[in-house]
Amino acid sequence: MAGWPLVHFDNLESGSVYGGSALDSALTSMTVNDRILGSSELTGSLCLRPTWFLSGNVLSPTKDAFRRWLPCNLVTSEERPEERTDLKEKNLREYARDNRGETVRDALIILRYHKTAGSLGGGWGPLGSFEEWDLMVRGAVWAATEWDCCKTRRVAADESPERSNAIALMEIWKKYQGEGGMTVSRAMTKYEKMENKEYVNRDIREVFSLFVRDEKKLTANAIGKRIHVIKNTVYNGERFTKWATHKKQIVWKVCPIGINPPGLLPDVEDEDA
Q1: Which distant-in-sequence residues (6+ apart) come within 8 Å of 4 by Cβ?
Q2: pTM over the 0.85 mark
Q3: Is residue 270 part of a domain?
Q4: Is residue 272 part of a domain?
Q5: Residue 185: which domain range?
């Protein structure tokens, strides 16, 4: 309601993730009508157009946040980078204030060049929910540098823990699913299998343990919920697919794109499902 032009979430916990439904919605909305804090009244339609920033060490996007933020990674070989003496600009804030006119002029020249040159781009498809920004800002950066400023966004998405865990689950599922797929209950029997008081399939235990902190809470229901969350989401050209049913349970199979289940989820008799 104060109309702040900038919002900065400072110093997030190291190794944490950023994003979430409320923040994701704010980043793609131009207006907001929400409840006033401490009141039962709504604000009415308000412009929501700040520039959003967040900072921290080793951060990762969660869920849909990866397509809403442009990571800027600072990497140093210094043990105490805050004590460096070889900085080109000793006082960056003062430099930015003193040279604001020239900086704004240069930015406007780049935007004008991009527009008069026919809105150059790198041949990519427009970024969903940010089409106007994509055409103007991303395109202008490309026209001036031939660098795609969304490259770090894709890298952050590829390196996110959620994606890595999903791929690990798919890989271990492929190892044990066989030709006809596998139910979660069947997967849990492999997870719990022991011989001579030692767990046999330790690889599946390691992967399943990625999804719960307390091993006592690692149940078929917990793994089933995780698969439901990522079903039909494509990772490296593959995805979890409902392949069949077995005793009223879903038989899941990891398949390449274009491979579909045989008919309308037939009920299979295979005891190994």
Answers
A1: 50
A2: no
A3: no
A4: no
A5: 161-256
